[in-house]
Each structure stands twice: as C-alpha cells, then as structure tokens.
C-alpha cells in the first residue's frame, strides 16, 4: 500500500515499508533476517551508529568482554552459522563479538537493508491508516504498519551531572561512548568513576597502562573471577558437537545461560559442604557462581552465606586491610545488583599506582580544570573515565518521541515508570513491538536468548496478522494491568528489590521513577507464558 505524504507540505513523501526496525545490534539484525527472509517483508533497519553491533559498537572501552560464555552468547537460529563460526575464548572480547556480528550481517546479506548513521528521533502512529510514521535526525521520513524497537537495554549513557565537568582541562570519556580509535593512557593520571560491571572490567586494564589510576567508588561490589582462557581445540570440538544440548539448556534455564541453577537450598548444606561448593564455583569462575544454590536470590539467610564467602575472598586478596574493608560490599545482598565478573579486579588494588577513593565517605563535590575535587581532597587527573552506567531499559525508548493512538506520548504514558504487556507491547501504541522491553526477562537473561525468543514471537505474530488479513494488534489495558502486577509480584518474591541503588530499579538516574523493570520470573517460564498467549489467539491483545 502507498503511504500518504508526510504532514509537512514541503517535506518529501515518506518511504513506505512493511516494517521499520530501530537498531542494528543483536536484535535488529535477527529481526531483519526473520521478517525479510522468513516472511518476505520489505523491512528496513535504522541505526544511529556508523557501524552495526549496537551495544558492542559503542562499548569498546578497555577490557570490554562479554560476561556470558562465548558459545552461549550467540545466535541459535542457524546450524550452519553455529558450525562455521569459531569462538577463541571462554568469554569473547568486544572486537571478537563485532567480528561475529559483522560476519552474520554479511552471511545473511543484511547490510543492504540497514541504514547506518540514521538516528530515529520521532515516531507517530496514524490510527486511520494503521501505520507508523518515523522521522530521522537526518531528515528522513519513513512509514510502515509495524515499528519494532531493537534499541537495547543499556544504550543511553548516564554521565552524572557533576558541577564543573565543562571546565576540566583534560579528556573525559563515558565507557558506553568510547572513541573508535581507543584512548592511550600511557603516562597519564586517570580517574575512573564507577565500579559496576564495566568499571570492574576496565580498572585492571587501565591500571596496567596508565601512570596512575584513582578509582572513585560509591558502592562496593561483589565480583567473581571470570577465569577467562582460550578455548582448547578439544573444547571447541565439544561445543560444536553439542550445540543442540547447549541450546536446550539455555532455553530451559532461568537466566538463559548454559547451566541450570541448583535446586538445593544453601541452608540445607553443612557449613563445610557450602564452603566446598562455593570454593569450587569460585575456582570455576563466572556467573555460574550464582547458581550454586537455588535460594540465593529468594532467601536472605541463604544469600548471606554467599555474600560472606565473597567478602572473605576480597579480604584475602587485597593486602591493605583498610582498602579491603572499603571494597567489601555491605549495603546489598550478592546478585541483587547485576553481579560483575572480573579478571584481577581486587588484585588491582595491590598495585602501587592504584588508589581507591570511597566517595560515600568523601563525596565528589566538583570537577575542576585540574581533576576531581571531593569534600576533603583534590585529585589531579589527565583523563576521567565515566564507568557510570546507563539510563537503562526505558532510556533508549524515551529518547525517541514515540506517539501512539491520539497523539499520546510514551513519555507521558510511562511518567510513573514503564507499563507493558509481556514487555512486548504498550497499550495505546498499536503495532509497536519493543524487543527486550521493560517487563520482559531481558537483562536478567543471557541477552541473545531473550532476543531470539522475542524476535521469533514478534515474527510469528506478524505472520498471524498478515495471514488473517488483520491490520493491527494492541495490548489491552486490562492485560497490561495484570502483567504489571505479575512483574511486581515476581520481583517482590525475590531479594532483587533490596538493592537500593540498582539500575534494575532506575535508582542510578536522579528523578527516574523507582520501578523494578525486568521480569524476574525466569526465561523458561516467560517463554511458556508468551507461547500460551499466542496459542490462545493472542490473549490480552486486541486484533483488528
Ligand atoms: O553500569 P552500572 P555498568 N558518582 O550502573 C557508579 C551490563 N554490562 O556500565 O552503584 C559516583 O552497573 C555506580 O555507583 P552506585 C551489565 O548488565 C555487561 O558498570 O550507583 N559513582 C556504579 O558503581 C551491567 O550491570 C557487561 O552507587 C557513580 C557505576 O557507576 C550493566 O551493563 C559488561 C555515579 C555504574 O555501574 C551496567 O554496567 C559491562 C556518581 N554520580 C556491563 N553515578 C558484559 O557482559 C554512577 N556511579 C560484558
């Protein structure tokens, strides 16, 4: 069908598509493949970056490496792709993931339908014609019945509003907007603000190169050794021979990882057994530590056993007892904030050229031309690295002026926090699908697993609409209310909301509503719910 002319009398007519996808990361690439090569739709991907890769395009900071095992942090939709691609390490480094995604883009001939350097600024739904009208910062006007956001959950950089930043005479960078050419720290005095997953990966690498590193820590963090290593030929062969089983486990698991959470309670084990199991998990390394017992995220007493184990490890690694005590997390239970994994993070504080500043005890007051000034000291710096995280989950969506039926804006609809049905749709915004949107497992899951499940569901849904000559689908208000209540209920049954400063809650961004955003009911359970909704003729959605 033909698009109407764009609203402005002088504007060029909008280009018409069957579907518009925003973002060329893991989600957007796969969504394009499914819609174009699976359903034969005319689909286009609009990508703000000058390259594909999404989060991996932007996050090229020192030490950037995936926290999921490489072979599980990959697409499962093509057996040929699984067999021909070879991961080199247990956890892939940022450049290796970029090579993988570029390989996928070439192999499935995706580039011809991807427009790089094209930032979507606005999207409005026209209910008379059941079409989305999309505007780009580059002046483009595009229209399609379906709009699919594949914008990622952690793509809007959060640079804290510290007075004086503009006066700083040195260089500063946010880890999520890292310069493509890299940053040379040789001989420099570097200040790093933030000790989340990113800061914990970056600090050891920066410290090894810089003349001096000052780490400004607001919240001490639990971290488990990653134990990264090259994959042996034997491991590579084993992985390729067992992909079916690996995928079966990732789909059956709570978090989309290639291992299951033990059903056992930490409190049933004797102290000696517990210690031995934690020690084995610590030696094995990685996010699997969290799976040692089944109740670490639901029972505070059980969690205490893991939290205490890690605290003791930190005290054992860090030689200066005063520094060690500052690094010991006390204000939240283990894994209620996304647990980092590291390569020699705590060891970094044994170096002579590294200083830890506890900014809870001595808060940052301002940035001066010379460096960072806290209440009690000034730290002269050449480079400041903001490892300060993201306006997570809602940030990338609300950065676009999205307007649904009757001109209602998403920003208004979500003024008190995000409200979705299944994390896939928003009432009042027909034919808009939000890949890994708030209210879906998303960031609590190994992302490619969550992404493939969403893309497959959306593709099946669009196929259903087209086969039945239906022009629109919209989540009902009642189904949304029930889903939001369910999302809160499952979060409240865990310890997750206890982490007061967590970005899961939006607590890291001043003024952001405090709502637990991801779905904590587990990926396997969520997949079943989504499948049942579809099988019941898209229960909770209005089709027309
Ligand atoms: O961001 P974060 P991140 N003054 O928000 C501190 C994923 N990820 O980029 O905790 C001083 O976790 C803040 O302190 P506090 C992963 O899901 C994946 O590290 O708010 N400090 C915190 O220490 C992860 O969870 C991978 O008190 C300030 C830090 O900055 C998510 O991305 C790798 C401050 C921010 O931590 C986000 O991680 C990396 C201020 N004004 C990340 N503002 C892989 O799998 C904030 N902070 C590879």
UniProtKB/TrEMBL annotation:
InterPro entries: FAD-binding_Monooxygenases, FAD/NAD-bd_sf. GO terms for molecular function: monooxygenase activity. It comes from the Bacteria. Pfam families: Pyr_redox_3 (PF13738). Its cofactor is FAD. Keywords: FAD, Flavoprotein, Monooxygenase, NADP, Oxidoreductase. Belongs to the FAD-binding monooxygenase family. This is NAD(P)/FAD-dependent oxidoreductase. It comes from Roseomonas acroporae.
């Amino acid at each position: 069908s033909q698009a109407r002319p764009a609203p402005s009398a002088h504007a060029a007519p909008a280009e018409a598509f069957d579907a518009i996808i925003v973002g060329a990361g893991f989600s957007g690439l796969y969504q394009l493949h499914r819609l174009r090569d699976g359903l034969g739709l005319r689909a286009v991907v609009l990508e703000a970056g000058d390259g594909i890769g999404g989060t991996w395009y932007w996050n090229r900071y020192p030490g950037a490496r995936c926290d999921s095992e490489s072979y599980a942090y990959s697409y499962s939709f093509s057996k040929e792709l699984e067999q021909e691609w070879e991961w080199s390490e247990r956890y892939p480094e940022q450049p290796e993931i970029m090579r993988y995604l570029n390989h996928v883009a070439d192999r499935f001939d995706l580039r011809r339908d991807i427009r790089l350097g094209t930032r979507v600024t606005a999207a409005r739904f026209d209910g008379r014609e059941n079409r989305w009208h999309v505007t780009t910062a580059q002046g483009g006007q595009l229209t399609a019945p379906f709009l699919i956001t594949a914008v990622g959950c952690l793509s809007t950089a959060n640079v804290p509003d510290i007075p004086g930043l503009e006066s700083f005479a040195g260089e500063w960078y946010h880890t999520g907007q890292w310069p493509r050419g890299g940053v040379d720290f040789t001989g420099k005095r570097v200040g790093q603000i933030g000790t989340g997953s990113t800061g914990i990966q970056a600090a050891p690498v920066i410290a090894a190169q810089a003349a001096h590193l000052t780490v400004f820590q607001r919240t001490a963090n639990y971290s488990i050794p990653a134990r990264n290593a090259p994959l042996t030929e034997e491991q590579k062969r084993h992985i390729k021979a067992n992909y079916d089983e690996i995928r079966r486990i990732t789909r059956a698991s709570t978090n989309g990882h290639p291992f299951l959470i033990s059903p056992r309670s930490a409190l049933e084990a004797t102290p000696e057994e517990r210690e031995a199991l934690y020690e084995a998990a610590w030696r094995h390394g990685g996010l699997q530590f969290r799976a040692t017992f089944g109740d670490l995220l639901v029972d505070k007493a059980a969690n205490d056993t893991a939290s205490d184990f890690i605290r003791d490890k930190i005290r054992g690694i860090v030689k200066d007892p005063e520094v060690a005590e500052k690094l010991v997390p006390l204000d939240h239970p283990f894994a209620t904030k996304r647990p980092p994994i590291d390569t020699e993070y705590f060891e970094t504080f044994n170096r002579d050229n590294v200083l830890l500043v506890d900014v809870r005890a001595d808060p940052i007051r301002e940035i001066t031309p010379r460096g960072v000034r806290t209440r009690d000291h000034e730290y002269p710096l050449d480079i400041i690295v903001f490892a300060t995280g993201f306006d997570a989950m809602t940030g990338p969506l609300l950065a676009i002026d999205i307007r649904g039926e009757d001109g209602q804006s998403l920003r208004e609809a979500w003024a008190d926090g995000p409200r979705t049905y299944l994390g896939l749709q928003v009432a009042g915004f027909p034919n808009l699908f939000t890949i890994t949107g708030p209210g879906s497992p998303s960031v609590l899951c190994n992302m490619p697993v969550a992404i493939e499940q969403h893309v497959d569901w959306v593709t099946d849904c669009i196929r259903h609409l087209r086969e039945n000559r239906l022009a629109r689908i919209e989540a009902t208000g009642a189904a949304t209310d029930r889903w939001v209540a369910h999302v809160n209920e499952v979060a409240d049954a865990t310890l997750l909301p206890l982490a007061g400063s967590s970005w899961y809650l939006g607590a890291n961004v001043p003024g952001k509503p405090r709502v637990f955003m991801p779905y904590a009911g587990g990926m396997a359970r969520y997949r079943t719910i989504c499948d049942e909704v579809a099988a019941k003729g898209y229960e909770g959605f209005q089709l027309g």
